Amino acid sequence: MADQFIRHIELLGFEKRFVPSQHYVYMFLVKWQDLSEKVVYRRFAEIYDFHKTLKEMFPIEAGDISPESRIIPHLPAPRWFDGQRSTENRQGTLSEYSHTLMNLPVKISRCPHVLEFFKVRPEDLKLPAEGQTKQPETFLLPKDTRSSVADITGPIVLQTYRSVADFAKSSTTEMALQAGELVDVVEKGESGWWFCQAKNKRGWVPASYLEPMDGPDESEEQEPNYEGEPFVVIQGYTAVEDDEMTLQEGEAIEVIHKLLDGWWVVRKEEATGYYPSMYLQKSGQAKARSQSKFRGAPPRRSSIANAKSIHKQARKRISQDTYRHNSIKVTQRRRRQSRPQNAGDPGKEDGMKAQPAVPPRPSRDLILNRCSDSTKQKFTASR
C-alpha cells in the first residue's frame, strides 16, 4: 500500500458560525494521493498552533539556527479578537501559506504532523441541526482571487456537472438548483449528497439531479463486486419501488454494487435490490451517528419529474435480473465449497464397501491337515 500524503490544499473561504458562540472557521479542500477530495474546517487559532509546532519540529527550516535557512512560511499570530473583516483579510495569507506548505521538502510536507492536522475529523462531517436559531453563513473566496500557482502535482480542477431538473432545498445546508444550471462538485459523498458550488452559493445537492457534461455515464462508477462486502443496516427502510429492498435495523447484508447516487445494490441471501447507502454501515465498525437525522436519503433519478438530459443516450444501468443471476452463481459456488469432500457421493462409499477383503494367510499345520497326500509328500521332500 502506498504511503499516504496530501497532493494539494486549497482555501475555499470561511464560515461564520453561532454555536456554541459566534466564531469563524476556514474551509480547506484537501486532495489526497488516492485522488479523494475532502473539505475540512479549521479555526485560525488551531492553524497557528499547528504552525508553531511545525517550527519546533524543524528548527533549521524555521530559521531558528540561521534566518537565511528559513523555508517554512511566516504566519501572523491571531488577534485578541477576530472579527469578520480580519477573518476575510487573512484569506490571502492562508492561501499562500497552504500553497507554500505543499511545496516544502517531503520530510516536512508529508510528515505525520501535517497529515494528521488536515485529516477529516468527526466535526468536519457533522451537519448543523435544523433546529438551530441561526444557521452558519458561508463566504466563498472568489475563484479569480484564489492562488493560481500550480504545485508540482498540478492545480486542482473541480468537475462541472449540469442539473437535470429543478431542485428546491429543504434546509439551509442544501443548495437550490434550476434545470440546466452548471455547478462545480467539491465533494462526492457516499450517501449520494454532493457538496457543490455555483457562483456565490454552495451547499449539498442530490447526485441524482446532476449529470456529467461529457456523457450520460459516470466514469468514476465502480464495477459490481459479486463477492460482496458485509454491511449492517443501521436504519430500516421500506421499499417504494419494485427494485428496492425492505430491511430492518440490525440485519446483515452484502453490498455488491456501490453507485454514486447513494443507492447501493445489496444482497440478502439470493434476493437483491437498491437500498440507501446512508442507512448502512460496514460490519465490525462502531455504530456511527446516523446522518439521516439531518437529511433523508437522496431521491432516485427515476423519481424525479421532468428530468431532462442533454445527452441523447440514456445512462447504462444493470437490471436486477442480472444482479440476481450473477449473485446466484456466487452463492451456489459458496455452498459447493462449504460441503465435505465426500458428502453427497454415496457411489464412492458403496464402491469401497463392495471390494472383497483379503483373507489371512493359513498356518503351516492347517495346510498339512487339509491338503492331499501328494501335496504332503512334496511339502515333506522340500524340507
What this model shows, in words?
Mean pLDDT is 83; it is low at 147-156. The chain has ten helices and 14 strands. The strands form three sheets. It has a five-stranded antiparallel β-sheet with strand order 8-7-6-5-9, with no helix packed on it. Strands 13-12-11-10-14 form a five-stranded antiparallel β-sheet. A four-stranded antiparallel β-sheet has the order 3-2-1-4. It has helices at 44-57, 84-89, 91-102, 106-109, 112-117, 122-125, 320-338, 346-354, 364-370, 373-382, and strands spanning 6-17, 23-32, 37-42, 137-140, 159-163, 182-188, 193-198, 201-206, 210-212, 229-233, 252-257, 263-268, 271-276, 280-282. Strand 12 and strand 13 (271-276) form a beta hairpin. The longest helix is centred in the C-terminal third of the chain and has 19 residues, at 320-338. The chain has three domains: 6-140, PX Domain (2-Layer Sandwich), CATH 3.30.1520.10; 159-212, Roll (SH3 type barrels), CATH 2.30.30.40; 221-285 and 319-334, Roll (SH3 type barrels), CATH 2.30.30.40. With 383 residues, the chain is of the alpha+beta class. Keywords: Cytoplasm, Phosphoprotein, Repeat, SH3 domain. InterPro entries: NADPH_Oxidase/PX-Domain, NCF1_C, NCF1_PBR/AIR, NCF1_SH3_2, P47PHOX, PX_dom, PX_dom_sf, PX_p47phox.
Question: Outline, from the CA principal axes?
Answer: elongated
Proportion of beta-strand residues: 15-25%
Structure annotation, total helices? 10
Residue ranges: pLDDT <50 for 5 or more in a row?
147-156
Q: From the 3D coordinates, which CATH architecture of the largest domain would you assign?
A: 2-Layer Sandwich
Order of helices and strands: EEEHHHHHHEEEEEEEEEEEHHHH
Count the domains.
Answer: 3
Helicity level: 10-25%
Biggest sheet record: 5 strands, antiparallel
Q: What gyration radius follows from the Cα positions, in whole Å?
A: 34 Å
Output the CATH topology of the largest domain.
PX Domain
User: Considering the protein shown, what is the CATH homologous superfamily of the largest domain?
Assistant: Phox-like domain
- Average pLDDT confidence is 83
